[in-house]
Amino acid sequence: MTDPVLEVRNLHLSFGALKATDDVSLTLCPGEIHALIGPNGAGKSTLIGLIAGNLAPDAGQVLLNGRDVTAQDVAARAQAGLARSFQVSAVAPGLSVLQNVALAVQGARGGSFRLFRRALSDRALTGAAMTQIDRVGLTARRTVPAGDLAHGERRRLELAMALAQAPRAFVLDEPMAGMGPDGAREMTTLLDELRHEAPILLVEHDMDAVFRLADRISVLVSGRIIASGTVAQIRANPEVQTAYLGEERLE
Amino acid sequence: MRRETLLNLVIALALLAVPLAAQALDEPFAITLATKVAILALAGVGLNIALGLGGMVSLGHAAFFGIGGYMMAVLATPVQAYEPLMTWPIELAGTKSMPLIWLGAVVAGAVGALAIGALSLRTSGVYFIMITLAFGQMLYYFAISWPAYGGEDGIAIYVRNGFPGLNTLDPLHFFALAYAVLLAALWLAHRLGGSPFGLALAGARQAPARVAALGIRPYRLKLAAFVLSGAVTALAGALYADLNRFVSPSMLSWHTSGEIMVLVILGGVGRLFGPVAGAALFILLEHFLGGISEYWQLFLGLILLGIVLFARGGLIGTLAGREVPHD
């Protein structure tokens, strides 16, 4: 087996008496989509925060390409090749689609301290940005301020920004949240292609998409991973069914 | 041409036309007013780099304005007293040359902003406002208790400093200098706004969490912008001191910080020509309302309230519409 790109070892984090993350370990290997599912309040967002560097664990390690990044901040982990998208779209609303994606390219390549060049007449910068904008299908909307985009478009912009970072690993926090069925289908196709560029740790509520895309699924309940395996294994797991999938069926 | 570009051009030409007309009509006081507009606008352009581009609400920019003013006094008073500026470790003479004084002011303002910004930017929101205010007031009280430069009374510079090839005592010449410096600062601000640096700064202001997740640390970007901002405002302070031929601690007081911020808000936060429009409106109000009533600032307050409530883009925003991302 190849070495994992992203590895989480025995992470612990408590907020007072609440164990938000309780001895979580998982790996993300090249070419795969590893889905992380779990009911609301299971600690998925906390785990993403720990992986991205927004939160510091009480114990445990986060490794990126085999290197321990537990002590590094968000920006350092991004530079090391971790791209994350946000559950609630976090794009700069006053900047255009192109500017937002150009900013992501700039983050990956450096050069944010160039004071006098014109950012958007830099061919290398806009070229790389436009490639990703074309991929997510926002070409016609490139000059629109991100704040004026429709919800689904903003989710796609999120993804274009993560893509523009040319990352080693994606951590995508509910990329399909609030999208209609058509949008979700397009996004599924896109994510399926993406895995060849870098593996994806996918947090998602849309079970159809998860079952279609995931190579492996880990189920998080009350801060603990209660099961991990292939789609078939997870579907067949009785513990998972009572803890999670049962609820879904009742809806 | 974009509507805002056109409006900016009209404002720039109007500010140039007033003193020329005043010269023709032999109204030197109007030239002085226009010069004051240009200098206050310059201070505002400085603040707007921090406030508009970087989203840093600094209530301590009087510190940099005053640093520029006092730098002028420090360099020019030895000359009028026929003394050297310092004798140890090297003998250094003062100067009455504006370019050198400007250089001194810009450097001092940048160093001051680096020190104040490095500490203040560890906080955010209301704490940032308070800490910049506190630093400003510290310098204010320092100036009051600094006898070498007149303490509370301030100090007069009897002859305006010189500029090669110009007669700075001629109001029109001095206006031309202030106007040229203002245009240069506007050009700087414009280039900054469209540069990769400006893009990252706008991102850091609008979506700080995202910018960090892209691998860009907002702290250093903001600090660099704060330093540039302080340097430009200090340059305005040096010119303002030369306009009045007088420096006093009031340049450092928080009222001055407030005035600079008010004129930026009047004109339009983050808009290139916001400070110019704001400074013009401010001076016009001060002059005409001040002539009608001693309490003109009450009316200024009402106008400010109106703008904050109903016209968030200030004067520029009202006339040119909302800001569009420039490409």
Automatic annotation (TrEMBL), chain A:
Residues passing through the membrane, by range: none
Keyword match Phosphoprotein: no
Coiled-coil region(s): none
CDD domains, alphabetized: ABC_Mj1267_LivG_branched (cd03219)
GO molecular function: ATP binding; ATP hydrolysis activity
One cellular-component annotation, GO: plasma membrane
All copies of domain ABC transporter, residue ranges: 6-247
InterPro entries membership: AAA+_ATPase, ABC_AA/LPS_Transport, ABC_transporter-like_ATP-bd, ABC_transporter-like_CS, BCA_ABC_TP_C, P-loop_NTPase
Pfam families, sorted: ABC_tran, BCA_ABC_TP_C
UniProt KW Endoplasmic reticulum keyword: no
Keyword tags: ATP-binding, Nucleotide-binding, Transport
PANTHER family: ABC TRANSPORTER ATP-BINDING PROTEIN, CONSERVED COMPONENT OF ABC TRANSPORTER FOR NATURAL AMINO ACIDS-RELATED
Protein name: Amino acid/amide ABC transporter ATP-binding protein 1 (HAAT family)
Species classification: Bacteria, Pseudomonadati, Pseudomonadota, Alphaproteobacteria, Rhodobacterales
UniProtKB/TrEMBL annotation, chain B:
Keyword hit for Transferase: no
Keyword Protease recorded: no
GO MF assignments: branched-chain amino acid transmembrane transporter activity
Superkingdom to which the source organism belongs: Bacteria
Bilayer-crossing regions: 34-55, 62-80, 100-119, 126-144, 172-189, 223-240, 260-285, 297-320
Membrane topology label: Multi-pass membrane protein
Segment forming the signal sequence: 1-24
PANTHER family the UniProt entry points to: ABC TRANSPORTER ATP-BINDING PROTEIN, HIGH-AFFINITY BRANCHED-CHAIN AMINO ACID TRANSPORT SYSTEM PERMEASE
Protein's UniProt name: Amino acid/amide ABC transporter membrane protein 2 (HAAT family)
Annotated organism of origin: Rhodovulum adriaticum (Rhodopseudomonas adriatica)
Phylogenetic placement of the source organism: Bacteria, Pseudomonadati, Pseudomonadota, Alphaproteobacteria, Rhodobacterales
